[in-house]
Amino acid sequence: MVAPVSIDDALARRLVLHEARVQQAPGRELRDLGDAWLLHDPFDTEPFWNRMLAPAWPVQPAAFDRRLDEAITLFATLGRMPHIRPLPLGNRPADLGARLFASGFLALGTDRRMVLVDPRPSLDLARRGPVVPGTRIVRAPREAPGLDAFATAVSLVLAESFSVERRRVAALEVDAIGCGGRPECEIVLLEVHGEPVAAARRVTIDGGTYLSSIGTRPGWQGQGHASLVTATAVADALAAGSVFVHLAVEVDNQRATRLYERLGFVVVGEPVPDLLLA
Description:
Layout: H1 9-22, E1 29-32, E2 37-40, E3 51-53, H2 61-78, E4 83-85, H3 96-102, E5 105-116, H4 120-128, E6 135-139, H5 146-161, H6 169-180, E7 185-192, E8 195-205, E9 208-216, H7 225-239, E10 244-250, H8 254-262, E11 265-277
Parallel strand pairs: 3-4, 9-10
Antiparallel strand pairs: 1-2, 2-3, 4-11, 5-10, 5-11, 6-7, 7-8, 8-9
Helix pairs in contact: 4-7, 5-6
């Protein structure tokens, strides 16, 4: 069961750093810089895998500008675009986002952090399970050939749910296979009469769970499938010993935000932009 949650600066920092730890693939490092954290992938230039997190920098303008110049130089030495991700609560300086915008950074995307505060709605839904005939919940086998077929089905769901470019679909399949080989990672797949329809992914480490890749194929949306896979992933996370469960949702996706609120999640702080230097 999740512990009582205090929505404060410490929780905001904990969620952001936990997400980064979840995303540490082999070879990808999370480096403590003392006043910020750096997630860096030496093999993939994708900005999402190369970002500075939760900076706590000087408030005084001249000192702030010097520290920002140092951060930009660090990205240059790594051959990566400067990418900074603030906190939803407790930024230092408090106007960090505004200062970065004024320095030429642009928002690549913006999301809201959400954390589970009441597990009962999710647990109740997961306990009831599918109610539509022919619907079943499937979890990834841990080895081939079953894992390969499962990963293909998951990649189909995610590609259609998020309009993924064709050239990146193979990467989704590889990622699903990789998840199946990690004991802390699990993908929940919902099928209707054998057709893959919806999916959700959880990674449980360090006493917490991060949920991601929650999607339903367009032709099947609005029927409660995303709610069921999310609730199932939450129930599995709590059964695995998680004391907190969290996720991120695009700020404009009000439909998904309301879905997660119905399942017991609440928004933490303000929207968080991914800021790239133009």
